[in-house]
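The following record pairs a protein chain with its ligand, zinc ion.
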Amino acid sequence: MKCNEIRNLVLAYLDSELDAKTSQEIQLHLQSCAECAELFAREEKFNERMFRVLRVGQSTPAIWEKVESRLRPARAGGWLLRHWKRVALGGVAAFVIAGIAIFVTPRLAGSSLDLARAVEKDHGEFVAGEMRSQFVGNVPDEIAKTFQGRLDVDAFSTRPAADGFRYEGARLCHLSGVPVAWSLGRIQQTPVSLVVFKRSELEHFPKAKERLDSGEPVVCSNAGRYQFAVRFVNGYVVCLIGDVKRTELEAVLKTVRTPTG
Ligand SMILES: [Zn+2]
């Protein structure tokens, strides 16, 4: 069987609904195909989690009995009937999980910060070694020529005064169409990106703009697996992102100076 045929059987397999021969074929495939094995493991974990959440509700069996007695005469047949309980449970689980998410996310609200999201992607490429610097030090003329007033060379010299950030080079990037000075560096051994752009471009990131304009001196957030912090420095918006402690990131961000002071 091919991967997609195997994957179509994941639910039936986990429910032990397949004949012995097919089950064995799947087991053999999973031993040799890491991708399918991972998908099956994930599905199994999700099921376990879902039922663990549902077991917490004690009144549940009584409700199911009531619903079941009403549904039975309908005899809908097919997969849905065999699985209606599971489908219904799934719905409840999704509801419970969504509820938990709503309570928990305000503390992690970071990923909802538009600017953090935009920076996260390119930083991930830097960490993966897919994004490299174009130059070290002064901005080459052919790059400066493309700014068209939306960026300037000083943005590339706007850096932390703290020794903590080791500058390794820079490049021009575009975030949602906004030209930005992207400096690649490290705090200790960890790759950290310093992203600088003109304050007049902040309107492209309304959420970040709202929070910075409201007077928060530093806005921090999660950006996927990274920490993100942003503040104004003179006429610039300055962001730092990396897999380092938030307090450390903030401390380095506070020392950022423009070349003109
Ligand atoms: Zn496979």
